[in-house]
Design goal:
Blueprint: E1 3-7, H1 11-21, E2 26-30, E3 54-57, H2 63-73, H3 77-84, E4 86-87, E5 92-95, H4 97-109, E6 114-117, E7 128-130, H5 138-148, E8 153-158, E9 162-164, E10 174-175, E11 185-190, H6 192-204, H7 211-214, H8 225-229, E12 257-263, E13 270-273, H9 282-289, E14 300-302, E15 306-311, H10 314-317, E16 330-332, H11 342-360, H12 373-381, H13 408-430
Parallel strand pairs: 1-2, 1-7, 2-6, 7-16
Antiparallel strand pairs: 3-5, 4-5, 8-15, 9-13, 9-14, 10-11, 11-12, 12-13
Length: 432
């Protein structure tokens, strides 16, 4: 039986395993937890979501929705399991973290040819998919560095706090989705005085500092909220705290600023502070977020943390099918390749697995074209750039339409329609 090694039991690794297993390949998956833990993981479960429980928009007129459509056509395990374990989140696909992880693990363990090895893997052999994630252990990172022949890159990522629903002052919140889209967000309005006090204290708060942090750039999509606050008093109000599209029913007015809370589970017990990734000390988090009236007595189930993330210089090292330029029998997948986001990581695992199978069977390597969300992201992360940084799916990465469509929503729908047509052609090519 054809046996493949996968290093890492995250979204990319699990998706890759599923794609291989259902085609009759045997998979040895190495997951170092719980023997070796990371700075942010709390369990030993496969596919543990540590940053957020949201897999972003499911609307097909968005780039994230288009990506999900493509992955659904490609029979993505991660997407199927997410839909089975979703929690209300307006137009987004959010999941119950525990049930989602449990569902993925159960599906893989149902295969007789799946071997889960709870050990830290330090060797990279032929016919391996390295999906060790942005928290790759030092020993494996050293091996990757040796394999690539140059230094890989690093950035820093921050995680948002989670609070108990029962500790939120509901009288100082209102339920509403932006622009009336659903009612799955709990909004904490702030007056101008409350917001300005919050920003002042946020910018002055004590942070957990590592010497390396001061020498590194933050990745903008995960910028700590206290760093954002230092950029100007209105930075947050035009970002994650923007009140546009929200009307407080208590007075019929748009608040000066709003901190949104999103449900974390199906039992309405836990809520995530949306856009509040932070590296403040735990005591400071309780004090500063307590300035928000609705969170004055909030009980924190998880405080925000910051950790070191690692990714390789994919334009220099990877082919478009996620194989190494120097050894096409070794593949990389997940955030370590520079794809940013849960579904993007899932996508990379899926494509890496399909690419590996074609190479193993001496077939020509094929990947989705740049008109698809998948292909456009592959094109981005493998195209030479002076300053390579992680990227998520975006309509801005795909070529323009042949016809000019002024209406923004109709234009995005046209991008999605074209992408779906092209991903179907890719599926036909795979079956030849």
């Amino acid at each position: 039986m054809k046996r493949i090694k996968i290093i890492g039991g995250g979204l990319a690794g699990c998706e890759a395993a599923y794609q291989l297993l259902k085609k009759g390949y045997a998979v040895d998956m190495y997951e170092m937890r719980p023997k070796v833990q990371t700075a942010v993981h709390k369990t030993d479960m496969l596919c543990e979501l540590v940053c957020s429980n949201s897999l972003k928009s499911a609307d097909e007129s968005t780039s994230q929705g288009a990506l999900k459509y493509e992955l659904e056509l490609l029979d993505s395990l991660i997407l199927k399991t997410a839909k089975r374990n979703c929690v209300p989140a307006g137009g987004a696909l959010a999941v119950d973290r525990h049930e989602f992880s449990k569902g993925v693990e159960k599906e893989l363990l149902n295969f007789d040819n799946f071997n889960l090895i709870r050990e830290e893997c330090k060797e990279i052999d032929d016919w391996t998919i390295v999906a060790s994630g942005p928290l790759t252990s030092k020993e494996l990172a050293d091996q990757i560095e040796k394999l690539l022949g140059h230094r890989h890159l690093a950035f820093y990522d921050a995680v948002a706090p989670i609070v108990e629903y029962s500790s939120i002052d509901r009288e100082k919140t209102f339920v509403m989705g932006r622009y009336g889209k659903g009612n799955d967000y709990l909004n904490c309005p702030l007056s101008k005085e409350e917001y300005l006090e919050f920003v002042r204290e946020l910018a002055a708060a004590e942070r957990v500092i590592d010497k390396e942090f001061e020498k590194s750039d933050f990745f903008n999509a995960c910028m700590p909220i206290e760093v954002m606050a230092k950029r100007g008093e209105d930075t947050l109000r035009f970002g994650s705290f923007r009140p546009v599209g929200l009307i407080d029913p208590s007075n019929g007015k748009m608040p000066y600023a709003v901190l949104q809370l999103r449900k974390e589970d199906n039992y309405n017990k836990l809520y995530n502070l949306v856009g509040c990734q932070t590296n403040m000390k735990f005591g400071e988090q309780k004090r500063v977020f307590g300035i928000v009236p609705a969170l004055k007595n909030a009980e924190f189930v998880r405080y925000g943390v910051m950790h070191r993330n690692t990714f390789i210089n994919s334009p220099m090292t990877l082919n478009k099918d996620f194989s190494l330029k120097t050894n096409p029998k070794v593949f990389f997948a997940g955030q370590i390749t520079g794809v940013e986001g849960y579904m993007e990581s899932c996508m990379s695992g899926l494509i890496a697995a399909k690419s590996l199978m074609r190479r193993y069977e001496n077939k020509e390597s094929i990947v989705p074209d740049e008109y698809t969300m998948i292909g456009s992201l592959l094109n981005y992360i493998t195209t030479k750039k002076q300053d390579f940084q992680p990227m998520h799916a975006s309509f801005s990465l795909v070529p323009p339409l042949n016809e000019r469509i002024r209406n923004k929503k109709e234009r995005k729908a046209a991008y999605t329609k074209r992408a779906v047509e092209n991903i179907k052609e890719y599926i036909i090519q795979l079956e030849r």
